[in-house]
Amino acid sequence: MYTKNLPLTGNMLLNGYQLSKLHTFEVAARHLSFSMAAEELSLSPSAISHRIAGLEEELGFKLFERFHRRIKLTSEGERIYTALQSSLALINQEVAEIRNNEISGALTVYSRPSIAQCWLVPKLADFHRRHPSITLDILTGNENINFSNYNIDLAIYYDNQPPEGLNCEPLMSESIVPVCSREYAEQHELFDNPSALQNCTLLHDKQAWDYRSGFDEWQFWFRAFGLENMECHAGIGFDRSDLSIVAAIHHAGVAMGRSTLIGKRLQSGELVKPFPELEIDCQHNYYLVTPNRDYNPRVKVFVEWLRDMSGAC
Fold first, then answer.
1. Mean pLDDT over residues 30-50, rounded?
2. What average pLDDT does range 6-24 have in this prediction?
3. Do residues 244 and 238 make contact, with C-beta atoms less than 8 angstroms apart?
4. Separation between Cα atoms, residue 207 and residue 301, nearest integer Å
5. Rounded to whole angstroms, how far apart are CA atoms 231 and 222?
6. Parallel, antiparallel, or unpaired: how do β-strands 254-258 and 202-205 relate?
7. Are 96 and 133 in contact (CB under 8 A)?
8. What DSSP letter does each residue of 237-291 carry, written as one string?
């Protein structure tokens, strides 16, 4: 027996038990099944049915038409379900905005140019999707920056040891291996023939490890594989590893490639490894560097995101 046009007081649907019954109704309406609602809510189907019946009694109208082994929303039930969906969507939107407002503002990140170009920047769309209220500024350079002078929140360094006096944590390790275009490798008969490098132009990052690195990456690699007799006589130097990679793609020579930075180039076929078995771990790693351990909310979410991205490599 339902009382039509029962007057509703302002608090009629606002106590905890009645809100619980509305939640039960939303789940049952979404599934159009008391048994599936019972499974989601860890209740028995009879408990679901009892709650719905109680809500219908309080409202003064039926929410469901009951049939053998199925239920169907009444027109009144459809209206209540639509209103609930709109209300829940509005609540979710408000919660998201509150959270985003707590993690908002400007964040300035300083990075070595090559890791920024080849690894960080291609992933930033994902970070912006997750945290649209954070305004990112990306700066690059090869020198270690003074955080306070430049208002830097976080830096990504490539070094053989963490800088002193700052908070650091390892981000990723690195390995190196010679790479070039397939055309260049075939032209110089490089495949499985390291000695043929004597007749090649060597491309290198002159500031790979410090400002005076020169051919250090190549010499480190030569020593690792007993090729000390090889001379670094002809080459083209750059102040960024990614520029040597671009030169290699365009058949200028053989570059010393960093594995973290060249993955997509290898997958696309723009680059090949003439000696894939001759890859060696670097003495250098990528580090996350901050002035101190007390991360503000913006730095914290960016650091967590970087950890996720580096773990996916």
1. 92
2. 61
3. yes
4. 31
5. 9
6. parallel
7. no
8. EESSHHHHHHHHHTTS-EEEEEHHHHHHHHHHTS-B-SSTT--EE-S-EEEEEES
* DSSP H stretches of helix in the chain: 16-31, 34-41, 45-59, 75-102, 113-115, 124-130, 147-150, 182-187, 216-224, 241-249, 259-268, 297-311
- Report how far residue 117's alpha carbon sits from residue 16's, in angstroms, rounded to the nearest whole number: 54
Q: Read off the pLDDT of each residue in 180-194 and give the average, rounded to a whole number.
A: 96
Contact 71, 33 (CB under 8 A): yes
Q: Return the top range by mean pLDDT from 19-23, 237-241, 265-269.
A: 265-269
Q: How far is CA 261 from CA 46, 272, 285, in A?
A: 59, 14, 13
Angle between helices 45-59 and 34-41 (to 10 degrees): 110
Q: How far apart are CA 199 and CA 190, in angstroms?
A: 10
pTM over 0.90: no
- 102: tokens are 């707590």
Mind listing the pLDDT tens digit for each residue in 145-180? Answer: 888 778 899 999 998 888 788 889 999 999 999 999
| Mean pLDDT, rounded, for 61-79 | 93
- Both tokens of 49, joined, read 């049915």
What per-residue confidence (pLDDT) applies to 154?
94
Instruction: Collect all residues with Cβ–Cβ distance below 8 Å to 159 and sequence separation of at least 6.
Output: 209, 284, 285, 287
